[in-house]
């Protein structure tokens, strides 16, 4: 149907008779000439028809073409008079001898250009038209590239790609499962996997040694902007490895992707313990594109009569380099910002380290220039810098300061989307206390091994037990996480006990795994990367939705195909279920 | 945890101090020597310990190792006295200096060797142990190789891999859907895709031009041995193509896979129309590893007083080369075989073309040597051959003869698993009549385009309309099928009408697709390969189940994890459904 795509003809093709096919991007009609921009995935090629030298019927046909018509055009490649060096095909045009309309098109509901006038809702409903825009399609081409390169690396490292089942068993741990009623087994349900965790561990028991899969996973959670009910993971597991082996292998993967997809040589991947991350950045996924480390000021700021600080559990400051020129208005806005309910700070103390060496703070009444100089020393501040200080309850203050640090990084232009700062955060706590259910939850998952030296603390101080667990963080976004797993029945049982499972519950849900551990399970560990998010990071976007071909909206609906939907009574009957909507 | 795998040490590694880890395959203890075969995915390495030169404690530890214990062993690589040239590591052994038991193992429920004593049920329950057997793991390694090579080819051909959604919309056409209740949208359900058909067509409307995906699909059908509720497809679609372009592209894929996975240069892929396949082989997926084409005998066998033939609608014969020596007993068995209810023939006529040139048949009473010689001419039979003849109603007779042909091929050893005969079957009928529902069904699917010249027959003789549809067949197995699609609203609507949809039903189910066709849909077509089956063919197996890591049994159960299972009342309530098992 075509001899060439719309992206490939060059001046060296001049005089060739060609056939192209694609979409009409634009028709211009001026001074007896008609130009048609013909578009496909590969590019745009200009067609030209001239009054006089072209027959009238063909001219009329060309003039009547609408936007997004699908046509086939035959003609000769000729050199353009006015070259367009912005287009790869800009040196040539096609002098058209025949046009066939393969399919006409209605006027699209929004403009199919990089800049469109379509709102979110409309573009979701006509996603197939939105995907026609170059900027959108390119995101999915990036995703394709990421998938191919991931597989190339993993295959090269001797990992075997194994497809694990989608119809599995519902487990009460973690997020809510999507379930699937079984027709053949009335009253019983499959669940869709939140991850292939137990299967990949069983593959290690099977001696597969190195497993990976790029796999759809499912969580029936209330959706936020960056969550989808179905999402994709790069899921991996290795046997006979230490944590160090895993970090090196997957640092290699990320390095390979940056090199081969973006042409970037990634710098060294830093490492930081969870405790350090919390202490210096107030969260477990610090954005290292900028410094602004927390400095603790208790020793220099207490005992000077400022009661707020004197009563605070923790006083911490950050130093915003070169920001001493912030105006009063800017600083007031910053103060209002930290006091917003989402942040929740009581107030903000700032100290300007003026370029003349003087210090000006909101607490000059309590602190002398020497006192403030001592703060500056702790924070590493120099003339020209702005120091921002928060205080209060330790946990809350770190959290607030983390938000403030990110905002300052943003405001000062330090979060450059073309810069990538990868980081391993290691030594996560094994358990976290859940106030609501009054019990411990597994911070990673129940299969994560505690550090051997911390096991005795399981009885005495469970919250302090560290896990062999690690996250990879890039630019403040967690892109992957994993752990060295438990591989013996006794430890796994102990773990379930500490998570509040009765022996019976543990056996019913995970008996097959614990039994497998008794038949020669090797030490093993693994990791899973959030593939949608990884693509978004590579694409320089904050939203994973852009990197999913057919995403769902915040109510889990696909508005294009109008799903979910009701099903026939007959179908429900076959599945031995009934709809029972609770009246409120 | 290891310096080498159990498959990599060679004589050139002699004197190296190494650490290996793996499973104890076998322990032998003889004349003061202990040998341990240590196994991992990569191979087996022999460990050796000698009384006297090894300390007592280590000897005792080695002697006490059980089968399938997971151990780590340190020692020195030494040349073996008695080399084993059947093992890649057979020139060396490890003189052990330390052993650590990483995990003991209970005695496995069946032997972990290529030949096992475990029955199907037991091996399914302990699938993780079955997967430990080399012969089983190698099947999944083949599958891995097939996936990687498929992607390599498709990527090289400019196809973009796009993940389409798993949570989609239930449609009444085709097999039964698995459904997923939506918690957020009470009373509504997602369906799991039977194929990504509509999504890949929308991607063509989006201008993706070439799409592929290796994707899980789902069908809630009653299971047979070679069906699974979840299965994998290589799913593909292309724009601006003719059928010829598609056949060439995917012949290329299959050729690439044979070359790169099996080292086989595939011969030319033959082409045959559906009509020819039915006429000469009695089915739409002929096994071309052997000839035995049907010969029609009506003109030579009627009118000789044999009333069975005289009354038959069709008389067909096949010629089994070199089988004239079949004994009376064998021929009686063959006659019994065709009369079994599964085959349903009334009887079997045979003619031996003896090596002396004489002809001996079961119908000598009615046919002279000359008559039988005329049969032989039609069938291409020569002295030494056996002719087998069936007669009756045309459709049934072709079907019976197809079965008989396959059986003869099998019995005569003509269905060699190492020989591959690929074939395109083209020009399938568009519709097939369903006696039960008394209406036409789409033979491929409702999106398949009729041949343009046959469209008028839609009104007059729908069953005779041919489709732009094709199957790839290898060795009598359909491994893939596809079609050129309808790409305009009017034809799609006409098609739905002929399939018995009301306009309203068509709009409700597929309105989004028909609307998409109005916004500039390019001509397009595609194909889907059954990936599990393709792997089985490549592996020389009849069962797809062997090529699936965690298959389900014939009741759709995963007996290893015990799924499906009941779920909590709480969970049902959240999902706004109730279990309602019909009492019979």
From TrEMBL, chains A, B:
Gene3D superfamilies reported for this sequence: Bira Bifunctional Protein, Domain 2, GAD-like domain, Nucleic acid-binding proteins
Annotated residues for binding of ATP: 219-221, 228, 478, 530-533
UniProtKB keywords: Aminoacyl-tRNA synthetase, ATP-binding, Cytoplasm, Ligase, Nucleotide-binding, Protein biosynthesis
Residues annotated for L-aspartate binding in this entry: 173, 219, 444, 485
E.C. code: 6.1.1.12
Annotated stretches, region: Aspartate: 197-200
Subcellular location: Cytoplasm
Broad EC category: ligase
GO annotation, cellular component aspect: cytoplasm
Domain Aminoacyl-transfer RNA synthetases class-II family profile, residue spans: 145-551
InterPro entries, A to Z: Aa-tRNA-synt_II, aa-tRNA-synth_II, aa-tRNA-synth_II/BPL/LPL, Asp-tRNA-ligase_1, Asp-tRNA-ligase_1_N, Asp/Asn-tRNA-synth_IIb, AspRS_core, GAD-like_sf
Entry-linked HAMAP family: Asp_tRNA_synth_type1 (MF_00044)
Assembly and binders: Homodimer.
Family: Belongs to the class-II aminoacyl-tRNA synthetase family. Type 1 subfamily.
UniProt function note: Catalyzes the attachment of L-aspartate to tRNA(Asp) in a two-step reaction: L-aspartate is first activated by ATP to form Asp-AMP and then transferred to the acceptor end of tRNA(Asp).
Protein name (Swiss-Prot/TrEMBL): Aspartate--tRNA ligase
Organism of this sequence: Mariniradius saccharolyticus AK6
């Amino acid at each position: 149907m075509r001899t060439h795509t719309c992206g490939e003809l060059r001046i060296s093709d001049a005089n060739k008779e060609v056939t192209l096919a694609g979409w009409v991007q634009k028709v211009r009609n001026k001074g007896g000439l008609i130009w048609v921009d013909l578009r496909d995935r590969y590019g745009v090629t200009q067609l030209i028809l001239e009054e006089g030298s072209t027959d009238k019927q063909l001219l009329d046909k060309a003039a009547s073409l609408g936007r997004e018509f699908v046509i086939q055009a035959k003609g000769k490649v000729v050199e353009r008079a006015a070259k367009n060096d912005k287009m790869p095909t800009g040196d040539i045009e096609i002098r058209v001898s025949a046009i066939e309309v393969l399919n006409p098109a209605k006027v699209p509901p929004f403009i199919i250009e990089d800049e469109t006038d379509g709102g979110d809702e409309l573009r979701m409903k006509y996603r197939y038209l939105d995907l026609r825009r170059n900027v959108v399609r390119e995101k999915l081409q990036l995703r394709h590239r990421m998938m191919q390169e991931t597989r190339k690396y993993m295959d090269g490292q001797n990992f075997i790609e194994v497809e694990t089942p989608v119809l599995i068993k519902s487990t009460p741990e973690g997020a809510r499962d999507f379930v699937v009623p079984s027709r053949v087994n009335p009253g019983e349900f499959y669940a869709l996997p939140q991850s292939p965790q137990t299967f990949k561990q069983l593959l290690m028991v099977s001696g597969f040694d190195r497993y990976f899969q790029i796999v759809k996973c499912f969580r029936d959670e209330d959706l936020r902007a960056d969550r989808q009910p179905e999402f994709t993971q790069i899921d991996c597991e290795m046997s006979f490895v230490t944590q160090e082996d895993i970090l090196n292998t997957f640092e290699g993967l990320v390095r390979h992707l940056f090199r081969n997809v973006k042409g970037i040589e990634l710098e060294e991947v830093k490492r930081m313990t969870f405790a350090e991350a919390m202490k210096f950045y107030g969260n477990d996924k610090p954005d290292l594109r900028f410094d602004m480390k927390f400095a603790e000021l208790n020793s220099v700021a207490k005992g000077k009569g400022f009661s707020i600080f004197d009563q605070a559990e923790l006083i911490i400051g950050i130093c915003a380099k070169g920001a001493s020129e912030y105006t009063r208005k800017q600083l007031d806005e910053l103060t209002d910002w930290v006091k917003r309910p989402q942040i929740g700070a009581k107030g903000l103390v700032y100290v300007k380290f003026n370029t003349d060496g003087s210090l000006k703070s909101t607490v000059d009444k309590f602190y002398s220039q020497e006192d403030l100089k001592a703060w500056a020393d702790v924070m590493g501040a120099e003339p020209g810098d702005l120091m921002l200080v928060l205080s209060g309850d330790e946990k809350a203050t770190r959290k607030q300061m983390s938000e403030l640090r990110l905002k300052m990084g943003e405001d000062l232009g330090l979060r450059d989307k073309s810069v990538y700062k990868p980081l391993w955060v290691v030594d996560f706590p094994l358990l976290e206390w859940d106030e609501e259910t009054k019990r411990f939850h597994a911070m990673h998952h129940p299969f994560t091994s505690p550090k051997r030296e911390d096991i005795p603390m399981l009885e005495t101080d469970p919250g302090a037990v560290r896990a062999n667990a690690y996250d990879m963080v890039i630019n403040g976004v967690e892109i992957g996480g994993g752990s060295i797993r438990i591989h013996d029945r006794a430890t796994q049982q102990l773990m379930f006990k500490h998570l509040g499972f009765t022996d019976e519950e543990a056996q019913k849900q995970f008996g097959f795994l614990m039994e497998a551990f008794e038949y020669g399970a090797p030490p093993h560990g693994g990791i899973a990367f959030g593939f949608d998010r990884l693509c978004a990071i590579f694409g320089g976007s904050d939203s994973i939705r852009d990197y999913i071909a057919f995403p769902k909206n915040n109510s889990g609906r696909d508005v294009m195909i109008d799903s979910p939907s009701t099903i026939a009574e007959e179908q429900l009957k076959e599945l031995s279920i009934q709809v029972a909507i609770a009246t409120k």
